[in-house]
Amino acid sequence: MVSPDLPIVLIDGVRYQLITPESEAWLEKTIQSNSKHIFGPDSFYFDIKKMIRSKAGVASIPDGYVIFFTPKPQWAIVEVELASHPVYDHVIPQLSKFNKGIADSSTRRKLVEILYDVFDDNEVLKARLKQKIKTGEVYKFISDLVSEKPLIVVAIDQKTEELNEAIDDIKGEVQVVEFKTFRREGISDDVNAFVFEPLSTKVIIEPGPGPDKYSEFWEPIRRDGLFKGKPVPIRDEGWIAKGIKGVTLILHLRNHKCSILLSLKGPDRKDRRDKVAKLFPKTKYEYEVRESPKFATIEFPVLDKGKKDREHWPEIRENLTKLGADIYNKIKESDI
After folding, report:
1. How far apart are CA 86 and CA 88, in angstroms?
2. Has this prediction a pTM greater than 0.70?
């Protein structure tokens, strides 16, 4: 789909105009066929539509998997999306399912078998991998690699502010690849040019903090007061939660933003959410209501500062706990 208002690219005097991909399936095939340009010439892209399932039975099907080298071996789950898809109703739930599914050890074992079979059935592919990893132990390499946390790659035709903000909610390392398609004007055949930043030039995966490291940000809050509790592992430092009358109150910390989130689930979650919202008149409180297939939420913005604004941590802690306690006490004292 071409619009006269969209940008153009000139290549030796020939005009190429930005288009919206005709479908997600088309974009997915295009990403796959250009995967070595995106992930590096030594990468291996697997168009494997295999379901991954969490311990609770939550299922999802990624668009693909990638093994690539930066130069350290990495593996990634790939999700191809169109910018027109609703972020909170479609994209974010899918990424959350990936995280939950891959956390299950049995799912990882099955994935190791699936990836190994791909190499075992293709001698050329296996030889390429052996040459790259400098060993003949292909199964061990894949098993060791998949035992590590994957990178989640979102390939999308256009980045949006909503997507950038929502990704802060996803645990783990997430990278967005904006993959724009420009189509040559004036001919009947589809001649395309693509604009994107190769992932190998932007990904820096730092070593994990280890299982015994805890969040420095939350330590004073967990020490005493209303939100007193166990230390927060760094892998979970985006939030802490406390339940009250069937409502989960979450102190939510993003990279450059923080908020209070009230989350309700169950068949009557929307009705209960609306009753809770009435406790907080708009004349005194600023908030937004949101819905997903399983949750109804209310989000109260606190500050446009977050975990990467270290110099403002005292201010962030004070404002988060102050508003959090106010909201908690109002719910506690209500008859909902």
Report:
1. 6
2. no
